[in-house]
Amino acid sequence: MPGGWNDSYFLPFDHGYFAVIYDSETISEPPASMADFLAADPSQKIAIQDPRTSTPGLGLMLWIKDVYGDEWESALEALNERTLTVTPGWSESYGLFTNGEVPMVLSYTTSPAYHILVEGTERYKAAEFSEGHYMQIEVAGITTKGADNPLAEAFMTFMISPAFQSIIPQTNWMLPVAETGADLESAFTDAVPAKALLFSPEEVAENRQEWVRQWLDVMSR
What we know:
The protein starts with 9 loop residues before the first strand and ends with a helix. Strands 1, 2, 3, 4, 5, 6 and 7 form a 7-stranded mixed β-sheet that branches. By secondary structure, it is of the alpha/beta class. It is 39% helix and 19% strand. It contains 9 helices and 7 strands. The mean pLDDT is 94.
């Protein structure tokens, strides 16, 4: 996992990267950067998720903030022009996408792997952005309140074992965080972008409320 991991309370068990997923039967020239995506034909709409209720929605907000910094308002204005709808969660917007109601959706670089390995189609693809892709890390922890559970630490150890990690790709459709003992399918190795973007937890905690307020201000215009 890019950057490694060092935390006293939480253990990562998988990770992934947010991406613009597009229908290759509708879009023949996908964007090669966030700048390209935001400047492209606004009639080619995308379905995204709300950062207040959805992890991918929050990830997109942080992704744009990371790329554009204090100049991100104009980027959000462009995103607003490209957006067909903002849904509460991932499943609603991805359903609109697979039903053909919108040619692009905010999801993960690993999303095409599902369509390739389960449905046998390469129709849906992830656009690779030159600025990099924002990373999501999913974690587990042991509660320190209540009765002591001697199995908790053993289960946490099991979560990063090859047996557990090997089923992550084709069950959670994310990337493992530890060695699995087996080679990943090319659909997953192709899903690892050249550059990973990530704010520190402290920076997100300090600024999240204000960034969401700014996002809402622009996206509700």
